[in-house]
Amino acid sequence: MTTLPAPTLPRTRIKICGLTREEDLDAVVASGADAVGFVLYPPSPRYVSPARAAELARRLPAFVSPVLLFVNSPAAEVEAACAQVPGAVIQFHGDESPAQCAQTAALGQRPWLRAARIPLGSDAPAFDLVKYAADYKEARAILLDAHVDGYGGGGKTFNWSLLPPSVNSHLVLSGGLTPANVTDGILQVRPRGWSLAVDVSSGVEVSKGIKSPEKIFQFVAAVRAADEQLAKASSHVQLPTT
């Protein structure tokens, strides 16, 4: 048998959501995260207006992506907001149908994510994530969030172990993630989709909408620790000699 290096696993991408302040955005960028999320849903305590999102997004360097989160917003509002934030990805977090998502995103020719609201506790298997991913096959990825009253995960974690073993989509793990549990979440969920990213908001906050630079850096470090564990586990494959 000949031992050869295995293909390198893609690193886990990181999005920090619910940004409202310049200093928090700067901390996210300094941490090495890949994306920042702006909540354009007025009932949310982390809400920012499209103009404010645009103002914050102008601080972003190249290759750090802005993501605009909408909940059941009219297509014209989504298009108008996206026009103010060049390069933004759309995140649909309400009850939007596959057709509504695709048609709205097409207005500005923007890539989009679709949130799946996973039931808490033992009810998680009742949610057909395989079918959901197939229904929203045009999405860039399916974001896995906990199903709570209202919209958003509310800082709650669903049972990752009850997710299907194989989903034909890129996945984004969200809902109750913290520096303490994100490593375990990645190890459990990464094998279930084509790739995995993570999305955190309350888990790196000192209060709603106010981020902690220390927690942000701890979260990123925990994600990288998970990547290192996965890389070690798949670092070599055994191939027959010829």
Automatic annotation (TrEMBL):
Molecular function via GO: phosphoribosylanthranilate isomerase activity
Alphabetic keyword roster: Amino-acid biosynthesis, Aromatic amino acid biosynthesis, Isomerase, Tryptophan biosynthesis
Family annotation (CDD domains): PRAI
Pathway field: Amino-acid biosynthesis; L-tryptophan biosynthesis; L-tryptophan from chorismate: step 3/5
EC numbers for this chain: 5.3.1.24
Catalytic activity: N-(5-phospho-beta-D-ribosyl)anthranilate = 1-(2-carboxyphenylamino)-1-deoxy-D-ribulose 5-phosphate
All copies of domain N-(5'phosphoribosyl) anthranilate isomerase (PRAI), residue ranges: 14-221
Membership in a protein family: Belongs to the TrpF family.
HAMAP family xref list: PRAI
Designated name of the protein: N-(5'-phosphoribosyl)anthranilate isomerase
